[in-house]
């Protein structure tokens, strides 16, 4: 099946996978099933690609301090997650990365999606504090939602009990920028569609550009 815009691909040593997670059991059968970061010593050889109309993004978001964080790779500065049939924030329909992160066609659309989410019915009636307990719950990857909320409120110079729905347009942009900063985008590589650095296993499945 040919790749589509918005598709992501995991690549290792000639193997490709469109699964949300690296297929460790298939690729590294001797890895520890209880350690999601055990790649049997091959972590630095694994790459993540995303297909866009103007580039092929490449990075190693599964590795700490390596190029290409998920937020950058997915054009998702807020690391917004989704589910099938969920709200339309401008993302590629039906495309979900690791952790159900949405994939957006460009950075601007992903940035605007932060406001669409927070101004929507799920967040508008919440205080900044309660909103970030929902946006970045402590149960998810060691988040600190109280610190997150305090950092956002400080950037806005307002109280954490302020309702999201009471923010004006300029304040929302400040909030979006602060969320973008906190989520931390690390740039990866932007490859041309005809780049020799794209593995043939991926290049041979790219959609037609005609």
TrEMBL record:
It comes from the Bacteria. This is Uncharacterized protein. It comes from Rhodoblastus sphagnicola.
